[in-house]
Specification:
By secondary structure, the chain is mostly helical. The chain is built from 12 helices and 2 strands; from the N terminus they run H-H-H-H-E-E-H-H-H-H-H-H-H-H.
Length: 342
């Protein structure tokens, strides 16, 4: 198993490098750069002439290496990440990109993981429940809900929930992780008073992030349910299940011992491919609701042509995708020893 995991990690590293290259190239494809925006700012707001603004823009490019060839910029970016742990310098924020991502990454990962867990658990449970009742009212309702939830755009659901929270429930601070009174409250677990404040802050956090978790997880619930239902139907119609029933096992025993464990194999592999959908839902919901996650940081950087933030954010999403597939491969090997390590 160790050799298999080592090979999969090696392949994953190669894929991540490919994602980094493609991300950096894609970010550079649009004409112009941050220096052009800086030049326009000097002309419109600073009263500089065309030649003066162009000279300042050229100095800006030389200072931050934007005048170098694209392959050299990419190699310097990768070198600094590997040797210094630096993701580059943000021209708009005047800070290291790694610091900006480090502030927002835990929140982004929290939302994505919660949405992924919600969609997986609910989807699997619903799929197991409706599969033995094929074409029943419950099965048809679940199928209808799955198609509707898969078709609805994430941003539309986010706008609808925001409208409901603000204009119907008159809820405030829907575009933040915490209410103002909890922003400066530290996460502490020392005294009973600190634990009480931390618990209150946690409840306030859940009240603010549940829309994003629901929005990002809705489509995942539908997909997981459909996949699990199909797997269960295949297993319930298999010959070994018929044999188990003929031996006197109850339907519950057949489900628990045979059908469900074997039906879980394909859906475990499916989790690696469904993780990007969760990230996509979290990305759209966070942007619409204005939450300080990597999604909003990516959108702002694309508007400002802040290339190192944009490329780093895309790289982070790519790493999460590769990590999801790697975890799914390892989980399948652990679950089923019959899987060959090749």
């Amino acid at each position: 198993m160790i050799g298999y995991i080592a090979r999969r990690v090696g392949v994953s590293i190669a894929v991540v490098l490919g994602i980094a290259l493609v991300s950096f190239i894609v970010i550079q494809l649009p004409p112009g750069d941050y220096a052009d925006g800086y030049k326009s700012f000097l002309i419109e707001q600073g009263g500089a002439t065309e030649s003066e603004a162009e000279a300042q823009a050229e100095l800006f490019r030389q200072r931050y290496g934007l005048d170098k060839p694209l392959p050299l910029q990419f190699l310097v970016w990768i070198r600094d990440m590997v040797t210094k742990g630096s993701f580059g310098f943000s021209f708009a924020y005047k800070r290291d990109v790694g610091e900006l991502i480090a502030e927002r990454f835990p929140r982004t990962l929290l939302l994505a993981v919660l949405a992924h867990l919600t969609s997986t658990v609910v989807g699997i449970v619903v799929g197991i429940l409706v599969a033995p009742r094929q074409y029943s009212l419950a099965d048809n309702l679940a199928a209808f809900a799955a198609f509707v939830l898969s078709a609805l755009p994430r941003f539309w659901i986010a706008l609808a929930i925001m409208f409901f929270l603000v204009f119907t429930l008159e809820q405030e601070h829907v575009t933040a992780f915490h209410s103002p009174q909890f922003v400066v409250v530290p996460w502490a677990f020392g005294s009973l008073e600190e634990i009480s404040r931390t618990w209150a802050k946690l409840l306030d956090l859940l009240q603010h992030i549940w829309p994003v978790v629901v929005i990002a997880g809705l489509g995942g619930v539908a997909r997981n349910m459909r996949v699990m239902r199909g797997n269960m139907l295949d297993e319930l119609n298999a010959q070994y299940v018929t044999t188990a029933r003929s031996k006197g096992l109850t339907e519950g025993q057949v489900m628990r011992r045979h059908a469900v464990p074997n039906a879980l194999h394909p859906i475990i592999m499916y989790q690696g491919t469904s993780l990007p959908y969760m990230l996509q839902g979290e990305l759209q919901a966070s942007i619409v609701m204005g939450l300080p996650t990597i999604g909003t940081l990516l959108l702002t950087s694309l508007r400002n042509e802040d290339i190192y933030i944009s490329a780093s954010c895309l790289l982070i999403y790519g790493v999460l995708l590769v990590a999801g597939n790697l975890i799914a491969d390892i989980a399948l090997v652990v679950l089923d020893p019959r899987v060959r390590f090749s």
